[in-house]
Input
Amino acid sequence: MDLCRFKSDRSAEDDGVWVALDGTDAGGGASLKLARIGNRRYREAMQRRMKPYRRALRAGTLEEATAERITAEVLAETVLLDWRDLELDGKALAYSPDSARDLLLDPALRDFRDLIVEMASDIELYRQQEQEEAEKNLPPSSAGTSPGARAKSS
Output
């Protein structure tokens, strides 16, 4: 077995990849830019935010609401990096770290937060091979790919 299939794209893990919410890449629907859960910034932020709660965490007495709040804040800061065409109650939502935090903290949108965690945990999104294939499938850029552009450079 060739272990290359397990290589991940570290920059995609940290900087995020665009993921269609409707499960297609056809565009037109909402999409999210997600860094991989457990990326370097995520780990650092979790350690920093959980530091005051270490004793309660070890003792198993950390309140669930506190853990959920911290997780949502860290997700907003380090995983949910942007979005396109997202609406709430029919109104377009502009991305900002604060609006991401508010959405992820909203108890009524818990399923949305769970979806973010699930998608950001999907290792296939961050595979080096998958990223290379996705780049091959992108439409050609206008710079240097047309016959006229090639003729000018010769």
Notes: The chain has one domain: 8-135.
